[in-house]
Amino acid sequence: MFVVISNKIIKMSKFNTIVFTQKIPVGMEIAWDFFSSPANLAKITPTYMGFEVTSTFQNSQKMYPGQIITYKVSPLLGLKMNWMTEITHVAENSFFVDEQRFGPYALWHHQHHFKEIEGGIEMTDIIDYVLPLGILGVFANYLFVKKQLNQIFEHRFKVVEQLFGKF
């Protein structure tokens, strides 16, 4: 079975989805302003990733569909890689989507959903990804990529709790 995403045909056997949910004891405006700002990405990413936003933008600039964000990141063995994503969808105070245009994945589609709940916000990330290199990518995902993505989001969970408190 195949799926077409962003004009790419992907074998479903290589297609991976990870979902992360976190409840945060803040209002929608605070959550949205923080998570929709590329300036805050490095704050919630493990330092060993060497994550650096290289785009030039105004810190006060609101996210918009079509926005291109560039980064340097070291996902493996400290090797620096360039990564480019595009913000493809934005529904303020509800969700936004970033898709890789250039980088370490054959496909990266990341949905960020925000929902008001009693006492705060429920934030859900849905990441659909495919690694390059065919069967080697499948093995790499099994051996370390999926684990690394989980570690990144576990780190983010802890940092968000430190910044905004526990739910």
Describe the structure.
This protein is α+β, with helices and mostly antiparallel strands and 167 residues long. It is built from two helices and nine strands, in the order βββαββββββα. The chain has helices spanning 28-35, 135-164, and strands at 2-5, 8-11, 16-24, 52-53, 68-76, 79-91, 95-102, 107-117, 120-130. The strands form two sheets. It has a seven-stranded antiparallel beta sheet, with helices on one face. Strands 1-2 form a two-stranded antiparallel ribbon. A hairpin with a 3-residue loop joins strand 6 (79-91) and strand 7. The protein is globular. The N and C termini lie far apart (41 Å). The relative contact order is 0.22.
Short description:
With 167 residues, this protein is an alpha+beta fold. The chain is built from 2 helices and 9 strands, in the order βββαββββββα.
List its traits:
167 residues; alpha+beta; seven-stranded antiparallel β-sheet; two-stranded antiparallel ribbon; 9 strands; 43% strand
